[in-house]
Amino acid sequence: MVKVVDDSGIVGVMPVNEALNLASTRSLDLVKISPHFDPPVCKIMDYGKFCFNRKKKEKEAKKNQHISEIKEIRLSLNIGKADLETKVGHAKVFINNGDKVKVSIKLKGRENQHPEVARKVMKTFSELCTEFAFVEIPLNLEARQMVMIISKIKNVKQASER
Fold first, then answer.
1. What are the extents of the domains in the chain?
2. Residue 23 forms beta bridges with which residues?
3. Under a CB-based contact definition with an 8 Å cutoff, are residues 118 and 135 in contact?
């Protein structure tokens, strides 16, 4: 005995053979929906169409999904103001595309003895980016490289935290 359901509602409780005959007369399939109930619930439906629609919905969801990448912008200690503004423009394009931006300065030779200059350049860069981004991972020194990661401002609360 199974409980049979179709698109219009409950058909009734009947033996399995009778439910299969009912489904075949309608040129549809009998699909077991809830096997744990007593009696089990089966639905009369076009199973091929159901699978097609499910795959179509999954494909649509996957199409609308954007995987964010981390783009890198490299600065130098003696970067000019115009060049810095150009790099900010590149960062804005990356962030508007939904990506995060890793900003880095590589310290070479004697530059290693003056990390405060690199901090100043990075601070200037982050201040120029405040209208469209916030610093997600603050500035830190990794071996001979200073790195920070900025990302898009998502809501008003993040904008007020800057």
1. 2-63, 70-161
2. none
3. no
